[in-house]
Amino acid sequence: MTDVSRIDAVFDLDGLLTPEERDWQQRARTFARERILPVIDRDFEQAHFRRELIGELGAAGFLGMHLQAYGCAGAGAVSYGLACLELEAGDSGWRTFVSVQGSLAMSAIAKYGSEEQKQQWLPRMATGDAVGCFALTEPQGGSDPAAMRTVARRDGDDWVLDGDKRWIGLASIADVAVVWARVDDPAYGEGARAVRGFLVPTSTPGFAATPIAGKLSMRASVQCDVSLEAVRLPADAILPGARGLSGPFGCLNEARYGIVWGAMGAARSCLEAAIERSTSREVFGRPIGAAQLTQAKLADMFVELEKGILLALHLGRLKERGALTPAQISVGKLNSVREALAIAHQARTILGGDGITDAFPVMRHAANLESVRTYEGTDEIHQLILGRALTDLDAF
């Protein structure tokens, strides 16, 4: 029995899923094992993003899979979550790619774009023929998007954008960027409502994306600094349905939902490695898995993994009913990433010194999860969201 089969056997998740959901999960698991795992250690070591997998992800239906029409699969929220879990069991970078493409860039166009914008971009993005990025975070802003400095001004019939963005996933390989900027035209909103979204083809003069070097996490993924210098766009580049920060936050919540599931995939991979090592390595004349302390560690990791998956499943069912709230998403994001990191750290102790090598995926997952913990809202941001929901007092 393989280690993931041991995990599946002890806790019968399949009994809570539909045949369609199980099929999506198996397809994603097969993709991760056949296309990601054989190359991910080398790619992580060499900081290499394997672009040829983009079209394969599109052909498999994973890009924008939760969206309807325009070539998207129209899968349910739980199916999408299970796909995120399996892809992140391969590597967080590939679940991140699916999230940036589908939950951020494609969702922004699907939620807020005109019909022309949807027809222009979504079918190509669903196949992977076009790549999108989501440019919200700024060097000084971080968790405070209301302090946005990127501005859009009218010049005749055109828009002109100036500003800087940072930690923008996929920007250097993207064909289109969803850029959020503060407009200075009262006709387009005042105060917080003045934040608007724009579709910026990355070939537009003045748009520049530079991959961030020196990363010790998410090394098989692409994150960039973005510079916008007098980027001139036609009037119809604006997303007509997005007004104010509720626009980008609506997309961020889609991505946060995927993380709730995805982080549990990384955790499961770490637990699998720990189980395998505990049964194959012998110390003092017996497998280390026969020691009570080791079994206690495995049991604790397993319990937190299954609690996290059950929470993700509950949130998925709420999402499918249209009843999922931002505070509930914060519960999931905070719990999943925090517990996934704890599982990774505990698994490393079972692996001993070899656990810091690429013979096992645990240190790679632990490093990646440090990034996942920060993006789409830090622990502290989600704690404050939940604190506000519990007290009705704003501590931001």
TrEMBL record:
Entry keyword annotation includes Flavoprotein: yes
Molecular function as annotated in GO: fatty-acyl-CoA binding; flavin adenine dinucleotide binding; glutaryl-CoA dehydrogenase activity
Sequence ranges assigned to domain Acyl-CoA oxidase/dehydrogenase middle in this UniProt record: 133-231
GO biological process, one term: fatty-acyl-CoA biosynthetic process
Signal peptide: none
Pathway(s) the chain acts in: Amino-acid metabolism; tryptophan metabolism; Amino-acid metabolism; lysine degradation
The EC number(s) this enzyme carries: 1.3.8.6
Domain Acyl-CoA dehydrogenase/oxidase C-terminal residues, every copy: 249-390
Record-linked SUPFAM superfamilies: Acyl-CoA dehydrogenase C-terminal domain-like, Acyl-CoA dehydrogenase NM domain-like
Source organism, top-level taxon: Bacteria
Record key words, sorted: FAD, Flavoprotein, Oxidoreductase, Transit peptide
Necessary cofactors: FAD
Residue ranges constituting the Acyl-CoA dehydrogenase/oxidase N-terminal domain according to the UniProt record: 18-129
A Pfam short name: Acyl-CoA_dh_N
Enzyme class: oxidoreductase
Reactions mediated catalytically: glutaryl-CoA + oxidized [electron-transfer flavoprotein] + 2 H(+) = (2E)-butenoyl-CoA + reduced [electron-transfer flavoprotein] + CO2
Family: Belongs to the acyl-CoA dehydrogenase family.
Name recorded for this polypeptide: glutaryl-CoA dehydrogenase (ETF)
Lineage: Bacteria, Bacillati, Actinomycetota, Actinomycetes, Micrococcales
